[in-house]
Amino acid sequence: MSSTQPGMWLNLFQAAQSTSLPLRAQLCTALREAIRSGAVPYPARLPASRTLAADLGISRVTVEAAYGQLEAEGYLTRRVGQGSFVAARFARPVEAEQPLRGSQLAALSQRGHQLVRGGGCRDPRTPLAFAAGSPDLRAFPHDTWRQLCNQRLRRDAATLAAYGDPQGYAPLRAAIAAYLQQARDVRAGAEQVLVLTSSQQALHLLGSLLLDEGDVVWLEEPGYRGARTALAAAGARLVAVPVDGEGMCPGDDLPPPRLIYLTPSHQYPSGCALSLTRRLALLEIARKHGSWIIEDDYDSEFHYDGRPLPAMQGLDRHERVIYLGTFSKALFPSLRLAYAVLPPALVEPACTVRTIYDGHGSQLMQAVTADFIARGHFAAHLRYMRQLYRSRRALLIEELDAKLPHLLRVQPSPGGLQLLVELPPGSEAHLTRQAQALGVATPSLRSLYLAEPGRDGWLLGFAALSAEEIRLGVRQLQVLRI
Ligand SMILES: Cc1ncc(COP(=O)(O)O)c(C=O)c1O
Asked: Which residue intervals define the domain HTH gntR-type in the entry (predicted)?
């Protein structure tokens, strides 16, 4: 039995390919990077040399030579009759906070110390079953994208190579505003759109701009770690507000918030929608206390059972809501494009802070994205991907229900790129360790709780996986024991 996904090895190998190096050296580079980055975590077993050679279309002798070299370098431990394993020196805690050693501690500020201890929020670098949040990049229309890039470079290379507008490339801002008005009922003109590199950058920027040390921020419990880390970095006092079937449910005894972070159309991770009653109640709280609301609409493009509820921003009559969207899932993550729709009073201050960060995003990529939207490719791509992801989600549910009913219970949800499953109380850490040893990623539900001990579960990413990879991943999990 191979301990990891064939598609993943091919991707890693292709990423390291270079015509100037022999195949053995290319394979060594790919394996070192996979082990160092944690894409193949300790104590995963690597595929048998025969299997890997067949998957990659290279000779077994080459794979044997690469494994031998990596053993000598200390990356692998090889055991006769058992196989090749990631060496113990690459062990790292599961989703754990990173402890600091004395010398590192001394070199950092208090803020730096706190940031690093939070563990950051890394995304998976390769589509590994069942890493959460990756879109399928194999299904992206790369040829169309290349043509649009070439056209832009032929026409506007010099202009696009210059410094750009910190607020974002104007035609892209106009295309985003038009899309959001039509698809999400957001009330926005291009002049309110700020183009950024990611929602993560938006959260960090808004934290710096809007929060003072100790300001109260309400967060959904459980909720998105990216928001938690970014707002904690700004010195916020985080208050975990429970989520029920209608979304965030604040009690009367909470300290008034300076900022509320919400995922209203598809709560992360539970998948529920924030009900209209709650939306109106939270907007009223924001009006009363002069609080800001961040509406993170991170995956509204991927709802499979009808349209999601319109954005909360469209209900806001007091200019309290800041709407966030990203192209990381709808197009591809390394594009590094996301956007905020700001209340008019925040546009100028936010653009100024953007100049302190990184000035502006890549003009070429913004121009190509604007063309991709304006020529109808974006709408067509979303239609296609919705269908693809819908069928993958159905397959994963079917496989889990059929093969792992003793282990987990699927939580239905109308959309998203990952599926929430509940595990028996107290079993998450133990089952996660077993899955990790097989090279299967099972993102933790418990780690998404700020204050409570939390429920046991996994958030299984399916969107980037072919039907065969989904079946293989579930088959691998069948050996897990509670
Ligand atoms: C709730 C939520 N917001 C934002 C993002 C990511 O957006 P970006 O890649 O633009 O930072 C994610 C990614 O998984 C997410 O789950």
From this structure: 21-89
| Cα 268 to ligand 1 centroid, rounded to whole Å | 10
CATH of the domain at 73: 1.10.10.10
226 belongs to a structural domain: yes
Buried b (16+ CB within 10 A) or exposed e, 62-101: bbbbbbbbbeeeebbbeeeeebbbbbeebeeeeeeeeeee
Distance 305 CA to ligand 1 centre (A): 21
Return the CATH number at 331.
3.40.640.10
Domain-ending residue, one of 56, 71, 86: 86
pLDDT at residue 6 in the model: 58
- Ligand 1 pocket at CB < 6 A: 133, 198-200, 224, 226, 263, 268, 296, 298, 326, 328, 333, 338
Alpha-carbon gap, residue 13 to 481, rounded angstroms: 32
Distance CA 247, CA 462 (A): 24
Written as one letter, the residue type at 262 is L
Question: What is the distance between the alpha carbons of residues 458 and 446, in angstroms, rounded to a whole number?
Answer: 8
Domain-embedded: residue 113:
no
Provide the domain limits for residue 55.
6-86
- What is the domain count for the chain? 3
How far apart are the C-alpha atoms of 334 and 194, rounded to whole Å?
19
CA dist 335 and 327 (Å) reads 8
pLDDT at 355: 97
Cα–ligand 1 centroid distance for 198 (angstroms): 8
Q: Are residues 353 and 390 in the same domain?
A: no
Alpha helices, H only, 40-123: 49-56, 60-73, 102-107, 110-117
More confidently predicted of 448 and 126: 448
Residue 346 lies in a domain: yes
Per-residue pLDDT of 417-427, as tens digits, reads 999 999 999 99
> What pLDDT does 69 receive?
80
Residues 301 and 175 in one domain: yes
Q: Give the Å distance between the CA of 239 and the centre of ligand 1.
A: 20
pLDDT tens for 191-243 read: 999 999 999 999 999 999 999 999 999 999 999 999 999 999 999 999 999 99
**What pLDDT sits at residue 95?**
45
Q: Name the 3-class secondary structure at 219.
A: strand
Note the pLDDT tens digit of each residue in 325-370: 999 999 999 999 999 999 999 999 999 999 999 999 999 999 999 9
CA distance 214 to 211: 8
